[in-house]
Design a protein that fits this description.
Elements lengths: L2 E5 L4 E2 L5 E5 L4 E11 L5 E8 L11 E8 L4 E2 L8 E2 L4 E6 L5 E10 L1
Antiparallel strand pairs: 1-10, 2-10, 3-9, 4-7, 4-8, 4-10, 5-6, 5-9
Length: 112
């Protein structure tokens, strides 16, 4: 077994439209840290989905975080998603209430 540490994807903004931001490919992925910060002057909200089968069929069944609201300058520390183990083929999809307002950062372990 091999374990490597790294970012799940490059730090950036939560997409406005529901989009896949990460797919665990060829390994298991354990999420160690997942933060979202509201950089806007207004409250904004986001949703997170964990889906099987390479993200086919994003439905409410797979929603892990539902319309979580953040006040201006507030940071969410991701307790609901930390320590989640993604099997190969599992994917993370996200959306938010306003584009370029919620900055997301994540890191984890890639296990082969």
């Amino acid at each position: 077994m091999s374990v490597q540490l790294g970012n799940l994807w490059k730090r950036g903004y939560v997409p406005l439209a529901l989009s896949f931001v990460y797919t665990s490919t060829g390994c298991k992925t354990k999420i160690d840290k997942f933060t979202i910060t509201n950089t806007d002057t207004n409250a904004q909200s986001f949703s997170i989905y964990i889906t099987p089968n390479n993200g086919v069929g994003v439905t409410d069944t797979y929603r892990l975080v539902y319309t979580k609201s953040l006040n201006p300058d507030e940071t969410w520390l991701g307790a609901e998603i930390m320590n989640v183990l993604l099997m190969s083929g599992n994917a993370i999809a996200m959306s938010c209430s306003a584009g370029s307002t919620l900055c997301v950062s994540s890191c984890g372990r890639f296990i082969t």
